[in-house]
Amino acid sequence: MRVLVAPDKFAGTLTAVQAAAAIAEGWSRTAPGDIIEQAPMADGGPGFLDVLQASLGGALHAVTVSGPFGEPTPAAILLVGDTAYVESGQSCGLHLTGRTDPERATTRGVGELLLAATDAGATTVVVGLGGSGTTDGGAGLLAALGATADCPLDRGPAGLAGLTVVDLGPARARLDGVRVIAASDVDNPLTGLFGAVKTFGPQKGLVEDRMPVVDGWLQDFAAIADRRLALEKGAGAAGGLGYALLLLGATRVSGIDLVSDAVGLPARAAAADLVITGEGSFDFSSRAGKVPYGVALVAGSAARPCIVLAGRVDVGSREMRALGVESAYSLVELVGEERALADPAGALAELAARTARTWSR
């Protein structure tokens, strides 16, 4: 039996590469004769560069950029020919903010990554959006590229209070002749009920009574910069980084689709008998551009069954079918939360070994 293992990261415990290896190792315990192919995946968030380099090759260039509070932060760009890949979470990720002071966290470092990419000779820059701890509408990114305003653009959303004028001309000129692609895992608008603040603010540390204030700052920013683009799909990605990139003329694409094409997932799924994917928490929000849904769509197009191994499974059988998934298996349900966190790779391998008893012919 040919098995394709294509998981996302298990946030906070395993990278996608580690998760794929654990699943493959566990599956082989039960079904040593099966042919297992590993295809770690990403949707634009953490692990984006690792997954792409594993498939595309290229060279990683180490750089130091501004972190979410201005501190020097190590990051990298992946250069493949004249195309550079950038992972926004490396400079403004949730792991760097610790969910603290979200009104001050800036995306300036992402703009510095763009500058590093163009300085390295890239004529196309693909920015992976996801896992950010910021909600500044990408104002910090614009400041790094030369945009000016009558308020500081790189002091987080709080810096936008009282904004009345912004000049994006220098930032657009800095990227003249460069094609920018925004690869995001969500399609939310910038503001409003389904915007960056209301949907993702709490996970970044924004408290309920501050969310209307922060959303108001972003609305004012959009009214001055371009209200229409604030409504575009993906404008709310990564706390509004998607919006800033759209202001610069970027093309928005699905992160999972971009990675799927890069790793040749459709052809690899067609050659398999079973496709396995996974993530830390498998729930109905996974339908919003997340890896399991994207992998399941590819498997469905190839008429191959797809199953999910996840830390938690919070969907029923009907929801699974809607996501194109045959079955889903929970790590926490098998070994308990304490073991799942203490030994995630071992526990995931154990879950894979047990699942193989049902699925391996």
TrEMBL record:
One Pfam family name is Gly_kinase
Q: Which GO terms describe its biological process?
A: organic acid phosphorylation
Key words, A-Z: Kinase, Transferase
Q: Does the keyword Kinase apply?
A: yes
Q: Which GO terms describe its molecular function?
A: glycerate kinase activity
Record's superkingdom? Bacteria
Q: Which family does it belong to?
A: Belongs to the glycerate kinase type-1 family.
Name under which the protein is recorded: Glycerate kinase
List the source organism.
Nocardioides cavernaquae
